[in-house]
Amino acid sequence: MPTFSPTTPDRCPQPALASTWQALAGQAAHVEPLYQLFAAEPERAHACFAQCGPLALDYSRQPASDAVLGLLSQLAMDAQLHERLRALLDGAIINNTEQRAATHMALRANATDATEKRWAWADRIHRGEHRTANGHTITDVVNIGIGGSFLGPSLVVDALQSLSAIRGPRCHFLSNVDPQGLQALQDTLDPASTLWIISSKSFSTPETTLNAQAACAWMDAQAGKDWRKDRLVAVTSKADAARALGIMDEHIFPMDESIGGRYSIWSAVDLPAAIACGSDTLRALHAGARTMDQHALQEPPSDNIPMLMALLGIWNNNFLGRHALAIVPYDNRLRLFPDYLQQLVMESNGKRTQRDGSPVTCHTAPVLWGSIGSNGQHSFHQCLHQGTSVVPVEFLVPARGTPQAQHDCLVANALAQAHTLAFGSHSPLAAATDDPALKTHKHMPGNRPSSLLMYPQLNAEVLGALIALYEHKTFFESVIWNINAFDQWGVELGKRISQSVMPVLSGKEANLPEDLQASISYLHTLGSS
Ligand code: F6P
């Protein structure tokens, strides 16, 4: 079988961590395969377990011995993870490049008057009590927004709307600037009973601005100018820009500059979710997140789920050279969760400079991807089992579901994947290969890390706890890497260059670099063929 040389551990990111980091690097040189770890530690299957409210983590299939787990706990203390999370909650200027606090956690700690007012307004629409100026109830809501102004609310609506006692209006999400998005929606909407939400903290994101202009032009033609006073609302920190579109003050739901887009589901960005699911759902979402916040702030590293997951992420990424992470929920309701986490993790921690501007010494955000199981088993799992890159996996598994037989099949598949990744051909359940010609083809190396996150059944509390869990995991990793998880300068340059390319596409002269000129001329040729 091919063998690959062991990876050299990354360099330590900060002096305070140096001695523990060095000890971990020593451990990385002789990591025992998982099947040997289980044999050597008879309690392992039961011991590597942590719980927070309805969520339980089984991390026994992570390649970390007792000694490594002890050192990872020490790393958490050296990096002062508890203290740094407390500082975040207390409003420290944690986002140093923009001189801002990050207040998403504080926002769910106590419901504010603004939150209660927004939820009361949303509830009237949710229950069908709100009437438009022409006496219609709202049947459809279109949220125009992208990034955090789309991923959070669409996740909550997709996961929870079907569970709410009253099924609120249909919710649609217009995010991509591709004109086909709006065109496809227009055929399904009644302009008289559709509410439009422009959700944009900056109110200047080009995709959102263009979609909003196109939607308003369509509605102006269908419903006359006055519809804007009645059925156009904004979620933004730039109230003046919203007013300029003719949006009434009582329909402008403010959000603070200190709420990052990828953390904004805790702000007024939740509006479409509150309308679709009702405020009880949002209250439960916040309650679930608060339970996880307290757990993250108080529990020691060895019992603290987000801290354990962050530390195991660091172990895999910085010491064992595994720079990707797959998220595989065996739960259809969580089918949008990998997309949501992609922004949370990769926009937060996809950084190459430390907080002081010096270059990082180690790998930062893993490449995060994934999709629901068991679908993935019939596409990318082959590569997880026998590919040459080892990708750690986080499985999400609900304990209950009906009908039982079908749910049992779902769970059996999830557990079998975790076991097979860990043990491969070393599993006592693996049959010996009878055909010698296929022996190597059928060999499963095993020793591939995964964790199981389990919960009774998906509901709003569980989803709130899951979102908060990954926020804290992401933050803890950023603290160890000494990077700022709350800015996103890397997306700016591409945005600016697209503004230079736009006029040239529509025929204006400009002096663009050669590669862009060539691509544009190919497109022009194809477009006129
Ligand atoms: O793409 C960068 C980004 O700034 C994200 O962080 C943000 O969620 C998204 O754009 C949308 O921003 P806005 O809410 O200001 O339109």
What's the gist of this structure?
By secondary structure, this protein is an alpha/beta fold.
Defining traits:
3 domains, 10% strand, Rossmann fold, six-stranded mixed β-sheet, binds 6-O-phosphono-beta-D-fructofuranose, 11 strands, 22 helices, five-stranded parallel β-sheet
Protein described:
This protein is an alpha/beta fold. It has three domains: 19-96 and 288-429 and 444-481, Glucose-6-phosphate isomerase like protein, domain 1 (Rossmann fold); 104-284, Glucose-6-phosphate isomerase like protein, domain 1 (Rossmann fold); 490-527. It has 22 helices and eleven strands. The protein has helices at residues 18-28, 34-40, 44-47, 66-78, 81-89, 104-109, 113-126, 148-160, 180-186, 206-223, 227-231, 239-243, 271-277, 279-298, 305-319, 337-349, 381-386, 404-423, 439-442, 460-481, 492-505, 514-527; strands at 49-52, 55-58, 140-144, 170-174, 194-199, 232-236, 252-254, 324-329, 367-369, 393-398, 450-455. The strands form two sheets. A six-stranded mixed sheet has the order 1-2-11-10-8-9, sandwiched between helices. Strands 4-3-5-6-7 form a five-stranded parallel sheet, with helices on both faces. A hairpin with a 2-residue loop joins strand 1 and strand 2. The longest helix has 22 residues, at 460-481. The radius of gyration is 25 Å and the shape is globular. The chain starts with 17 loop residues before the first helix and ends with a helix. The mean pLDDT is 96.
